[in-house]
């Protein structure tokens, strides 16, 4: 499961805001963000999507966050 790992990363990268969206509850958010597969992780800066990872690869997720956390 990627959920607990996502929560763990949120404690490691304290300067990053982590949000989890239940796309079944708010389908309009999934549509607006172009999410078509689960899980999808997106990085947003200044109101724009700058990166995305589709899938539950832990190392790739950590690398994605580290890349944009600086």
What does this structure look like?
The longest helix has 12 residues, at 58-69. The protein is globular. It contains three helices and two strands; from the N terminus they run ααββα. The protein has a two-stranded antiparallel sheet with strand order 1-2. Strand 1 (40-45) and strand 2 form a beta hairpin. The protein has a single domain (3-69), classed as Glutaredoxin (3-Layer(aba) Sandwich), CATH 3.40.30. The model has no long low-confidence stretch (mean pLDDT 97). The protein has helices spanning 3-12, 27-33, 58-69; strands spanning 40-45, 48-54. It is α+β, with helices and mostly antiparallel strands and 70 residues long. It comes from Micractinium conductrix. Residues 1-66 form the Thioredoxin domain. It holds the Pfam family Thioredoxin. This is Thioredoxin H-type. Keywords: Disulfide bond.
